[in-house]
Design a protein that fits this description.
InterPro entries (chains A, B): Homeodomain-like_sf, HTH-type_TetR-like_transc_reg, HTH_TetR, Tet_transcr_reg_TetR-rel_C_sf, TetR_C
Number of domains of chain A: 2
Oligomer: homodimer
Shape of chain A: elongated
Largest sheet of chain A: none
CATH superfamily of the largest domain in chain A: Tetracycline Repressor, domain 2
Low-confidence stretches of chain A: none
Mean pLDDT of chain A: 85
Keywords (chains A, B): DNA-binding, Transcription, Transcription regulation
Distance between the termini of chain A: 63 Å
Radius of gyration of chain A: 20 Å
Structural class of chain A: mainly alpha
Strand content of chain A: under 5%
Pfam family, one (chains A, B): TetR_C_11
Number of helices of chain A: 9
CATH topology of the largest domain in chain A: Tetracycline Repressor, domain 2
Order of helices and strands of chain A: HHHHHHHHH
Helix content of chain A: over 70%
Number of strands of chain A: 0
Organism (chains A, B): Streptomyces salinarius
Protein name (chains A, B): TetR/AcrR family transcriptional regulator
CATH class of the largest domain in chain A: Mainly Alpha
CATH architecture of the largest domain in chain A: Orthogonal Bundle
Chain lengths: 194, 194
């Protein structure tokens, strides 16, 4: 316990290696063949493990896919702190737009709106947690006096992120930097003449 | 042809009556039992017609449901023209929020994001057409000088409607007038101090 470099016991490390191999295979299959292609059998074959080991660890195919996507995507959405609210928002929402334009991002969002009892507790929270993290950019803007004191941080984040999600889910319209800039500037400045 | 009150031939009128009865039954079942309860058999029984007549007219269950929901909901989203852009937007988006809070509205939106080849061509356009209609409120605001001349009308409509759709599809957070007012005022005024 006082060791400066505590290491997991061998069994656990093997488990972690297996876990990473399976998740990487799942992400590859999701990217190349979409949700339908990422069956437990195909993932297990690609990772070189037994199908039963996958079921033992994840229980269901849905849990495996969710774990693969969230692990993969979590690194892709850092919350910046540039000292200027507009730059922070542009960086964050450009990253979100890029993410939603990837096959994995689309797959995770599609999975999030499908009815499925086994996932109900984890998918909604996935996006809410990421957007909750983003709220701090707005709070800092208020503290610096860049934004009005009565700004509702959550509402601003919803107003910029909502159209990005809707374009993926409903309209299929493209996500690009022009769109992100337009939404951020509308939320900051409004459409009234100044 | 020069008759002042042209009437449809008897056969066609019977068809229209049958159509309305089936659509009303479908809406009732969707409201009371959700998407899963609105089978062709249940709808036909409730409308007092043969299941084969329903298939002959609509082809698939999905077409029937879509027809029922769009017919029902079309009357619920008028585009107001009060002479003030804020009042127009509040009225329109409050109506949209109320609509999305009904079982039928939810059902139509859920149906719109589900993958289904038979509906692909009609569901996306359903919402796009309704939002396209809304753009005129913003244009009139620009013409009256209430909004900046470089306002992007479609973007403003997306910024207000997006969060409403996302709350239904992803977060399950409530849709109320406080939310609608907050989104409309953010899009009009922005979060920067004035």
């Amino acid at each position: 316990m006082s060791s400066p470099e505590p290491v997991a016991p061998p069994l656990r490390r093997r488990g972690e290696r297996m876990r990473r191999a399976v998740l990487a295979a799942a992400v590859d299959l999701l990217s190349s063949q979409g949700l339908a292609g990422a069956t437990v059998g195909a993932v297990a074959r690609a990772a070189g493990v037994h199908e039963t080991s996958v079921y033992r660890r994840w229980g269901t195919r849905e849990n495996l896919i969710l774990d693969a996507l969230t692990t993969e995507l979590d690194a892709a959405l850092p919350v910046p702190d540039t000292g200027r609210v507009r730059d922070d928002l542009l960086a964050f929402f450009s990253a979100l737009a890029r993410l939603l334009a990837t096959p994995q991002g689309r797959a995770l969002l599609r999975l999030s709106v499908e009815h499925d009892d086994t996932l109900e507790d984890r998918r909604g929270p996935y996006w809410s947690e990421r957007l909750d993290r983003a709220v701090v950019m707005v709070r800092r803007g208020v503290e610096r006096g860049e934004l009005a004191p009565d700004t509702d941080p959550g509402l601003l984040i919803e107003a910029v992120s909502g159209p990005l999600f809707v374009r993926v889910l409903l309209s299929g319209a493209p996500l690009d930097d022009v769109l992100v800039r337009g939404l951020v500037d509308l939320a900051l400045t409004g459409a009234r003449p100044r």
